[in-house]
Amino acid sequence: MAKITSRNNDFLKMHRNSTSPKVYSLLIELINEDREDLANEVIKIDYLVDYFNTCIKKRDKREGKETLERINLRLSKLKKEGVDTSHFEILCENILKNNKIKL
Length: 103
Prior knowledge:
With 103 residues, this protein is mainly alpha-helical. It contains five helices and no strands. The chain has one domain (10-99). The radius of gyration is 15 Å and the shape is elongated.
């Protein structure tokens, strides 16, 4: 079977410009393994990380903590399926570290 790319897959085409290269490569890997359900989870986590960053920058600790819990819950689901989630974990750690906030 040929490798699926954004040229022949609407899901990848839709998310190509809105995700980082690391997230996009993870999406390609999941779509090629016929795991579009997990690719949808990755998109949701990517959105939650963006929202988490916004909360922390605005110093909204309560909402940031809730969002981080949701991120960790979704990451644990992906880990059970064997998906590499280190990129998202590093992003969350760096957001907290750079803004000097402890939750």
